[in-house]
Amino acid sequence: xxxxxxxxxxxxxxxxxxxxxxxxxxxxxxxxxxxxxxxxxxxxxxxxxxxxxxxxxxxxxxxxxxxxxxxxxxxxxxxxxxxxxxxxxxxxxxxxxxxxxxxxxxxxxxxxxxxxxxxxxxxxxxxxxxxxxxxxxxxxxxxxxxxxxxxxxxxxxxxxxxxxxxxxxxxxxxxxxxxxxxxxxxxxxxxxxxxxxxxxxxxxxxxxxxxxxxxxxxxxxxxxxxxxxxxxxxxxxxxxxxxxxxxxxxxxxxxxxxxxxxxxxxxxxxxxxxxxxxxxxxxxxxxxxxxxxxxxxxxxxxxxxxxxxxxxxxxxxxxxxxxxxxxxxxxxxxxxxxxxxxxxxxxxxxxxxxxxxxxxxxxxxxxxxxxxxxxxxxxxxxxxxxxxxxxxxxxxxxxxxxxxxxxxxxxxxxxxxxxxxxxxxxxxxxxxxxxxxxxxxxxxxxxxxxxxxxxxxxxx
Length: 460
What we know:
CATH architecture of the largest domain: 3-Layer(aba) Sandwich
Number of helices: 13
Mean pLDDT: 95
Number of domains: 2
Radius of gyration: 22 Å
Shape: globular
Helix content: 25-40%
Distance between the termini: 52 Å
């Protein structure tokens, strides 16, 4: 166990070391240092974390929308320790009991005939694996021309070299061009920003689903391998599609022999008030990817889960799906996942996500009534979003030049919230163990923060 510095001098030296040696996610070390950072957390309990200077924060993001069962769960730590003391890894060509039990558990929880899991280390790997399975599945059936992948603009499916091109373009990808060939982009079924203007939620859903079929026909059904999407798009500020969307997409994929991949990396394991988000529409995908909440981020583990119809094509020595990942299916991670899932089930955290998530959604809608900067409130369970606008009537978005997100993030910190705004808005995904009293604290902090921003930017 690493000793936590307590003296100001030692804390300063640790920060200095971070600024000189650590390359943090989406953080510039120069600006981080100028702001007095980085923040270094040393303890956590429930939805709260404590930093190295003793200040307690509420983590409204739940890590990366990933700490489902909350911080400080010693049951998960004990399970990991026990497995590490018994068998910390495995020789080539073997497996371990916790991984077998985890694969069986995933099969028992998953909808429909999603029965076989390919274990990996994280969500990006899970989605990369899903694309590889989809393409190789078609090849084994003799459809060698099926390589194109449809994803939706405004979605995010990972940071590795292939899946980073899903979800459309953007400046974050410009360093890595040229793009992977065969990437095709469909509209995001987000009624507030629907590409088919002036539509109701249902109309937007129908038009967006029809757009998927139009793309298939335009590019040629015999070139299409898969359609991949989040059931609820976290990267589009928790955009929930209208009810017709998913049944229509399922039918379209079946009609043209295209595999439907559900990216449940964020939405899985209770985040939206169901164990898996597609259960809201009673849809079974051909392939489902899971990560994050499967271990509540206590250790890295993810999986690509397929129906028997898909996996059976790979049965037999000559049909092997050829991929190996050193840490995929690590037994210590698998033991942690089993302990985490036990907590989610025994403490009814999926139901709490539905109930407390609805309470949080209604509180956010009350904020919307009092804050003109809030253009839209949306989401399911404990995956929620606030879209922020300069003007509600025109839905004009903020730009970096406005300084809005910088001011808002400063105010979130002042009010004890670990919560990050972009110029588009704010995503909320707290741990599923959150209580109503903690929701009230969050709402109060957001209210105060929005009030300051509106005052400074003269938004009336």
